[in-house]
Specification:
This protein is mainly α. It has one domain: Up-down Bundle (Rhopdopsin 7-helix transmembrane proteins). Helices cover about 70% and strands about 5% of the residues. A hairpin with a 5-residue loop joins strand 1 and strand 2. Helix 3 runs antiparallel to helix 5 and helix 3 packs parallel to helix 7. The two termini are about 40 Å apart.
Length: about 350
Amino acid sequence: MDVNGSLQDVNVTSSIFQYGTRRNVASWQTVTAAVCLSPIIVLGVIGNLFSLLVWIKGRRRKTSTARYLSALALADILVLLLPAAEFWVFYVLHVDLRAKSWFLCKFYSYLTYLTPVTSAWILVAVTVERAMSVWIPHRINVVCQPKTALLFVFVAVIILSLVYAPICTGSGIETAIYMHSNGGGFSVQECTIHSSSLIKNSFVVWLVLDLCLFFIIPFGIMLFCNISIMAKVVCLANARRNTLQARGGQTTAPRGGRSQKMLKTVTRRIIVLSVTYCVCNAPLAIYNLILISDGADDILNSEHIAGYRIVFHILMFLNNGVNFLLYCMIGSGFRKDFVGMFKSGSRTSTTR
């Protein structure tokens, strides 16, 4: 998901793009990015660092779920420090970092696509693992091991890196000349896709592929897994209630109640993460889908495109910055591990 959008969307008569790397951005966009995105980046990076420490030092650090969530925290930090920070610099400081050099053009063009989609697929992996733990709990320790989680993350990063490699190889700095409506003109250095690149002539197909990898396929998998989890939980609850009734209404907690409570907490956490991902990313995905459709001009008012872009991207970055708060709200074990890291002599965060 390219944070700066396509230069074809720019209204040249408004002189949004000026000489060099300086950009003239509307004041309301600057205020919106400064007020909304600044705390998301700062608090999001700090929160994900805390989450990373909890997952690698806490009591559940040797579980596959902890490995997945550690990788997710690291991916979210990269999203906030790279695409989100570039977005902030563009709209708040009015500087186009991509246009400064050949390296920065390729660097940001590539990682702007790669880091968010990597975060999405790590969340897909942990969601699938939770669904498996609910449906095949007796084999989960065999199927889902910490080494398996690390292997999946590594393979996923390699595959996605290769898929998005054409963005890196095909992007570069070019000089464009824009004409004003009064007959004047100006030139500008811009980071764009070379006309001779492999994806230039099929860029719409590429955008559809990115949309599928970033949202449509992950959304479908997470929706299916979460529905199956909730269905299984309901079935187990009904079976437990029928068993208690058959025993004459005995209501004492069965053995293994603590592990069942932890399973419910972890499952609830993954469902909330998945729902948050879908809510935060669906508007941008729908917006991009409309942009590449034939009826975009009839659906979207050109005067509102800039507003949609900045709001939907801030919402996307919010998804990468709120996981720490979600962990604290949902899991008491996470809160205990987090507090235990700051207690002198505490063994809370050093024991399994």
